[in-house]
Amino acid sequence: MKLTRKVATKVDPQNHDEGMGRRQFLKSAGITATGVATAAAFAPSMMRKSQASEYVSHDVPTQVKRSICSACAVGCGIYAEVQNGVWTGQEPAFDHPISKGSHCAKGAAEREHGQGKRRVRYPLKLVDGKWQKLSWEQALSEVTDKMKLIRKQSGPDSIYFMGSAKFSNESAYLYRKLAAMWGTNNVDHSARICHSTTVAGVANTWGYGAQTNSLNDMHNAKSILLIGSNPAEAHPIAMKHILIAKERGAKIVVADPRFTRTAVHADLYCPLRPGTDIPFIYGLLWHIFDNNWQDDEFIKTRVFAMEDIREEVKNYDPDTVSDITGVDKKTLFEAAKTISENRPGGITWCMGGTQHHIGNSNTRVYCILQLALGNLGVSGGGANILRGHDNVQGATDLGVLFDTLPGYYGLTTGSWQHWSRVWGLDYEWVKGNFDQGEYLGRQPMTSPGIPCSRWHDGVLEEKKNIAQADNIRLAFFWGQSVNTETRQNEVREALDKLETIVVVDPYPTMASVLHNRKDGVYILPACTCYESYGSVTNTSRSIQWREKVIEPIFESKPDTEIMYLLSKHLGFDKQFTKNIAKTDTGILIEDITREYNKGMWTIGMSGQSPERLKYHTMHWGEFSYDDLVASSGEAKGEVYGLPWPCWGTPDIGHPGSTILYNTNLHVKDGGSNFRARFGVEYQGKSLLADGTYSKGSEIKDGYPEFSADMLKQLGWWDDLTEQEQQQAEGRNWKTDLSGGIIRVALEHGCSPYGNAKARCKVWTFPDPVPIHREPLYAPRRDLVAKYPTYEDMRVHRLPTLYRSIQEQDFTDKYPLQLSSGRLVEYEGGGEETRTNAWLAELQQEMFVEIHPTDAAARNINNWDDVWLEGAEGGRIKIKAMVTPRVREGLAWMPFHFAGIMSGENLIDKYPDGTAPYVLGESANTALTYGYDPVTQMQETKCSLCQIEKA
Predict the structure, then answer these.
(1) Going by C-beta distance under 8 Å and a sequence separation of 6 or more, which residues neighbour residue 424?
(2) Closest to 164 in 3D by CA, of 511, 498, 591, 422
(3) Beta bridge partner(s), residue 535
(4) What does the pLDDT read at residue 840?
C-alpha cells in the first residue's frame, strides 16, 4: 500500500505509547511486496516491550495470559504480559501449534485493545444531537421499556438482533437463546455476508458446511488452487502454511481478477473475469474428463450424480470458457493439468467466491471439482475455506443465524422441542413468546427471519410486502458495523426511520453516526474479548479457550453479562439462565459451554468440555505443528482444539476430527465418511455409499443415520444402559440427550450420521446443478440472454429482485466492472483496526485500483482524487491507485473504510474522543443490489461503476 499521512492528529509512537515507529515496524515486521507481514522471525530479544498507557515499574511482577488473536479466523496464539492489571507487553506464542510464533500486522497490534484510547467508556444516549452519559441501569431500563412497548404494538419480530462474529462461542449461543426467548428469528451476524453461501453449498454437497482439513495439513498438499482468496493479505499466517507446502514442492494455482500478493507466489495465474467462477471450474473439468484424469473409483463409490455434471460440462468447451472468463485456453489447460497431476490437492476460497448472487452454486462447483479428483478425506486435499473473523465459524455453529438454531438444527417444531429440552423449559412456554399469527402460510417461529444483509429492507419495505406483523422498529447492532452492507444510502435511510438504535460494542461503529437523527440512539460499551474469557472456533474447526487478560476497562461489560441483564429487565432471566450459575459479575461462562455441549450433537460440538479446552490452551507445546496431534501429556493422541465432530459426551474422550470424511481412520480416532443427511434414495437411486466405509466399521456398506429404531434392527439396543434407553427411546442421534445412540454407533465403528455419497445435485436449490448466470449488473450484455439470472422471487420474508435489474443495460453510463476486497492492515468494516494507532499509521487513505489504460482515458494520474459512482448512484470521493494488477475494465476497492459519506465527513457525530484515527468512504456506498436466493448473500464482487477525476 502507498503510505501517506492524512489523519488530522499525527499518530506519534512515543506520545501514544506505540513501542516502535512506523518505519521500524515495517522493517521489523517484514512487510514486503508479498504483503505477508509476520513476526515469525522475531526472537524475544528483537521484540521491544509495548509501553502501558500508565506507568508501571519494571520490577512489578508480570503475569502471562494466553489468548487468541481476534483479527481473523486463523486463530494465532498470543502471550499477553500483565502488570498491576495493565496489559503492558505482548509476544507471539512460539509454541502455538497453528501460528508458531507468527503474527500479521493486525495480530502484532492486538495489545491496543486493552489500552482503550478511543473506546466507548460508559453508556451513552443521543439527545437533541448531543451524547449524554447514562448509568447502565437507566440505559437498560429505557431500551427494554421500548422493546416491551414495540412488542405490545407490533409483536416481537419488530425487534432486530444483529449479532457478531466477534462473539465467543458462549456469547454467540447465549445471543441466539436471547432472541429465541424474546420470540423472534430476526437474528443474524456477519457470516451472512461472508460465508453463508459456503455453509449452504458445502453442507448440501457432503454434509457439513465447514473447512474439511486443517491449515497445518495444507503442508501436505501437492497442489493448491486458490480462487477468490488472497491469504497473503487477508490471512497472512494461513499464507505461511501455504508457503510451507510450496517449499515442499506443491504447485500453486491462483484464479483471481487481480494479480494479488498471493498471485505473486503462484506457479500459474489465471486472470478470470469477476462472476465467472462456474465457467472456469467447468473449463477445468472439461479437460479433466477429456483426458480421463478423474478418480473413477472414488466417484463410483462415494459420489452421487457426477454424470449430471459431466453433461453440464459439455457446454463449457475451451473456446466458450475463454470467451466468458477471459482466461486463455492454454492457461486453462495448464491449470487443469497441474491440479490433476499433483494430487492430493486442496482448494482454497474466500469471499471472492462467496459474495455473488450465485454464491451457493460457486461453492458447490468448487466441491464438485474436488470430488471429481478424489481429493476429499485425504491429507493434503480437501476444501480449505478461509474465514475472516476470529469466531465467524463458531458464531455460525452456535446459530446466530436467521434460518437455524444452534448446531444447524432447522426451525422445525422438532428442533425447537429439542432445544427446549436442553434448556429444561416447557416447549409451549418457548412457543408462546413468538407471534402466533400466520404470514404467507407460515408461522414466524418455524420460518426464517430477515437476514442481516437486508435488515434495512425490513425497515423500509412496505409493511404489506413483509411476511411478518410489522416492520422492524428497533435494532441491536451488537459487534457488527453497518458499513459492511451494500446499498449504504438505503442503510442510512433505514437508520433514520428506526425508532431506536442500540449499539453494543467497544467502539461506536457506523450505526451510531451514519444516520441524520438527533435522538433515539444508545451505545452500550461492551468489552473486548481480552477482558472476558471463553472459547472460539478457528477456520479449521479447532476450538480454543481464551484466558481473561485484563478486567473490563472503564464501565464496559462482557457480552454475556449484558445479555443476562437484558433478560432480567425483560422478565425471563430465570428461564434464560436455568442451567447456568450466577457470579458476582453475571453468569458462569463454563456453564454456558456445558449447556450447549448437551445439545450440539449434530456437528459433534459436544465433547469439548471447558476442562479439556483449557488443558489444550495451557499446553500448546504438546501439539504437533504438522498434524496438530499431541504426542505427550494428558491430551496425548488428541487433536489440538478438539475440532468438531468431537463425538459424544466429554467423558468418552473423542480426540476430535482434523480431516473430515477420512475413511482411513476409525471413527473413534477421528475417521468418518460422507454424511447421510439427504435421505437414502432419490428418484429410485441410492444415495448411500457403495461398498466403502470408515476403518473398523461393522457395517461394510452405506447406511442411514442412526436412530433408536436402527439400533434395535441391528441388535445393538441392549448396548445402551437402562438410563440411556429411557432417553433414547423414539429419538435419533441428533435428539438423544443421553448421547447413548452416538456412543453405541462409535463402539461399532460407525458414524452416527450415516454413510452416504456426496452429491453433485441439490434438488432443493433453484439450480440443482450449478450453472453460470451473469451478474445482475452485467458488463457483458452479449452473454445475458444465454446466461440469465433468476426471475424475481420472494425469499423468505422479503421480495427479492433479479431479472428486473439484469434486463436493464447500465454499461453505457457505468462501463467499468467493480469489485472489492481486503487489505492486510485492516479487518472487516475497519472500526477496530482504524482505531488502532499502529495500524492507522500503515494505511491512511481509501482508494480505488484502476488500470493504466482506463486511467489514461479519464485523465487520471496516480493518487488523484476521483469520484467513483456505482450503478445505483452511490458516489464516493477517494484516491486513485493506477496499477496494472487490475485488468483493463475492472476497478477494485478495499471495504474497510467508513466515516465519510459521499464527501460528507461524519467525524463530528462521534462521541468525544471515539472517532477512528482514519476515516474514509465506504466501498458499499457504491456497491449495489444482488442477493443469493438460498442464503441472501450480497453481491459485492461484480457490480458496475464510472470513475471521473474530482
Answers:
(1) 578, 579
(2) 511
(3) 545
(4) 95
Q: Give dist(CA 677, CA 685) in Å, integer.
A: 15
Nearest to 42 by CA among 101, 90, 95, 96: 101
User: How does 359-378 read in b/e, with b if 16+ C-beta sit within 10 Å?
Assistant: bbbbbbbbbbbbbbbbbbbb
8 A C-beta contact, residue 570 and residue 148: yes
Beta-bridged to residue 822, according to DSSP, are none
DSSP assignment letter at 868: E
Question: What does the pLDDT average to over 606-612?
Answer: 98
Q: Quick check: 76 and 107 in contact, CB under 8 A?
A: yes
Q: For 778-814, what is each residue's pLDDT tens digit?
A: 999 999 999 999 999 999 999 999 999 999 999 999 9
Which DSSP helix (H) or strand (E) runs through 793?
strand 793-795
The three-state secondary structure class of 671 is coil
Q: For residue 482, which of 899, 836, 786, 86 has the smallest C-alpha distance?
A: 899
**Cell numbers placing 297:** 473409483
Q: What is the pLDDT of residues 242-259, one digit of tens each?
A: 999 999 999 999 999 999
Calculate helix-pair angle for 136-154, 559-570, nearest 10 degrees: 50
Beta bridge partners of 931: 938
Three cell numbers written together for 66: 494466553
Contact 917, 891 (CB under 8 A): no
The CA-based dihedral angle spanning residues 310, 256, 199, 190, taken in that order and rounded to the nearest 10 degrees: -160
**Does residue 2 carry a pLDDT above 80?**
no
Q: What distance in Å separates the CA atoms of residue 590 and residue 546, rounded to the nearest whole number? A: 12
d(CA 736, CA 739): 6
Per-state percent for the chain, helix, strand, coil, to nearest 5: 35, 15, 50
Q: Report the candidate in 369, 206, 374, 375 with the shortest Cα–Cα distance to residue 295.
A: 374
**What mean pLDDT do residues 598-626 have?**
98
Helix (H/G/I), strand (E/B), else coil: 499: coil
Query: In this structure, is the dihedral angle defined by the CA atoms of residues 443, 444, 445 and 448, taken in order, positive or negative?
Result: positive
Other Cβ atoms less than 10 A from the Cβ of 942: the count is 27
- Is the predicted pLDDT of residue 13 greater than 70, yes or no? no
Closest CA to 724 of 705, 744, 710: 744
Q: Are 413 and 446 in contact (CB under 8 A)?
A: yes
d(CA 538, CA 386): 9
CA dihedral angle for residue 616, residue 622, residue 627, residue 631, rounded to 10 degrees: -120
Per the listing, cell 500503515 goes with 842
Sign (positive or negative) of CA dihedral 148, 152, 157, 158: negative
**In angstroms, rounded to a whole number, what is the distance separating the alpha carbons of residues 184 and 545?**
30
Whose cell is 491512511? That residue is 844
Determine the Cα–Cα distance for residues 379 and 228; give it in Å rounded to an integer.
Answer: 23
